[in-house]
Design brief:
This protein has about 350 residues and is α/β, with parallel strands linked by helices. It folds into three domains: about 5-135, Response regulator (Rossmann fold), CATH 3.40.50; about 175-280, Beta-Lactamase; about 290-348. About 55% of the residues lie in helices and about 20% in strands. Helix 2 runs parallel beside helix 3.
Length: about 350
C-alpha cells in the first residue's frame, strides 16, 4: 500500500445509530471505514483486513470491548493493532486501567468531541501510512538484496571458474625465460618471465624481493653442481645445459632443465646471459618408470634363465639315466642271445 491509498479503520458498536454517527464524524475521502455490530464480527474482520485503527465501544452484549480486545491481542496478526475504546463509563481510573491492561492504546469519552476524535484518528492513520511505507521499502530493499546476492553469486561463480582456468593454464606452463645482467663478472640484476609462477610457484615479484630465492630453492644435493655450471658459463662464455632439482613453492620436488646462453660484447666481455628453464618432472618420472621396468625385466630374465638352467640340468640327469638303462638293456640282450646259441648248439 502506498501513501495515496485509503487507510482502513474499523468501528465496533452494537448500536447501528452509534456507528452511523461515528462514521459521519470521521467522513474523510482518505479513510476506508468498516463497521462491526459485535465483538465476534470485529474479530472476523480484523483477521481478514489490515486495519490502521479500531474504534470500539466498551459496553456490548455477549462480548464486551474488553474481551474483544483481549482476543485480538491473542492473535499474532492483530496483537499490535491499535485500539481506542469509546465509552461513557471510563471516566474513573479503574475502568481506564482495565482498558489499558486489555490492550487499548487510548480512549474517548462520550459525548465525543469531533476535533479530538479526528486528531487521534489522524495520528494513528499517519503511523499506519508510515508503517506501510516502511514495509514497502523493506520489501524493495529485500528484492534488491536478493538481486544483488544473485549477481554476487554469479560473479563469485565466474571468479571461481576463472581461477580454475588460471590454475589449469599455470599447470600447462612448463618453461619460462629469465635474464641476468652482468657487470665486472658479477650478476647485478635478474628479470624473471611471468611463466616462473607456473614452473616454480614463485612470482617474478617474489624473485625481485628476494635475490637469493633462486639459490635456496635448488635441492641441497644439486646446489654445487648448479654453481659449477654457472662458473663454466662465465669461464667459457659458451652455452651450457644441465638438469637439477628444485623445491617448488608448494613443497614438492621438481626436476628442471636449465639452458644458459651468454651475451658477449665486441670486446669479449660477458654483459648478460639468458636462461630457459623447463619443467622436466614428467619426463624424469617417465625415465624412472622405464628404468624400474627395465630393472624388473632384467630381474625376471635372470630368474627365468636360472629356472631354464635348472630344468636343463634336470633333463641332462634324466637323459643320463635313460642312456644307462639303454646300455644295460643292450648288454642284457647280448647275453640272452649268447645263452640261446649255447642252448641250441652244445659244442659252441
Amino acid at each position: 500500500m502506498t501513501a495515496t491509498d485509503k487507510t482502513p479503520i474499523l468501528l465496533v458498536d452494537d448500536r447501528p445509530e452509534n456507528l452511523i454517527a461515528l462514521a459521519s464524524l470521521l467522513e474523510d475521502p482518505g479513510l476506508d471505514i468498516f463497521t462491526a455490530p459485535s465483538g465476534n464480527e470485529a474479530l472476523r474482520l480484523t483477521l481478514k483486513h489490515d486495519f490502521a485503527l479500531v474504534l470500539m465501544d466498551v459496553r456490548m452484549p455477549d462480548m464486551d470491548g474488553f474481551e474483544t480486545a483481549e482476543l485480538m491481542r491473542a492473535y499474532p496478526k492483530t496483537s499490535c493493532l491499535p485500539i481506542i475504546f469509546v465509552s461513557a463509563v471510563m471516566k474513573d481510573t479503574k475502568h481506564q486501567f482495565k482498558g489499558f491492561e486489555t490492550g487499548a492504546f487510548d480512549y474517548l469519552l462520550k459525548p465525543i468531541d469531533p476535533t479530538i476524535l479526528r486528531s487521534k484518528v489522524r495520528v494513528f492513520c499517519d503511523l499506519y501510512q508510515q508503517r506501510q511505507m516502511l514495509e514497502t521499502h523493506e520489501q524493495q530493499l529485500e528484492a534488491i538484496i536478493c538481486e544483488r546476492t544473485a549477481e554476487l553469486n554469479t560473479t563469485l561463480d565466474n571468479l571461481r571458474e576463472s581461477e580454475k582456468r588460471f590454475r589449469a593454464l599455470l599447470e600447462s606452463v612448463t618453461s619460462y625465460m629469465f635474464t641476468v645482467a652482468m657487470d665486472g663478472g658479477r650478476a647485478v640484476s635478474t628479470e624473471h618471465g611471468a611463466g616462473c609462477l607456473g614452473v616454480t610457484g614463485f612470482s617474478a615479484g617474489e624473485y625481485s624481493a628476494d635475490p637469493d630465492l633462486w639459490y635456496r630453492m635448488i635441492h641441497p644435493d644439486d646446489q654445487q653442481m648448479v654453481l659449477d655450471a654457472a662458473q663454466q658459463l662465465l669461464t667459457s662464455k659458451a652455452a651450457v645445459t644441465f638438469e637439477h632439482r628444485i623445491r617448488h613453492k608448494d613443497g614438492s620436488i621438481r626436476w628442471i632443465q636449465s639452458t644458459l646462453v651468454p651475451r658477449v660484447d665486441r670486446a669479449g666481455e660477458l654483459r648478460s646471459y639468458d636462461g630457459v628453464i623447463s619443467d622436466i618432472t614428467e619426463r624424469k618420472r617417465a625415465e624412472e618408470k622405464i628404468l624400474l621396468l627395465n630393472q624388473e625385466l632384467e630381474q625376471r630374465v635372470r630368474e627365468r634363465t636360472k629356472e631354464l638352467e635348472r630344468r636343463n640340468f634336470e633333463l641332462e640327469q634324466m637323459n643320463k639315466v635313460f642312456v644307462g638303462r639303454e646300455l644295460r638293456m643292450a648288454e642284457l640282450k647280448g647275453k640272452i642271445a649268447e645263452l640261446e646259441i649255447k642252448r641250441h648248439d652244445p659244442f659252441s
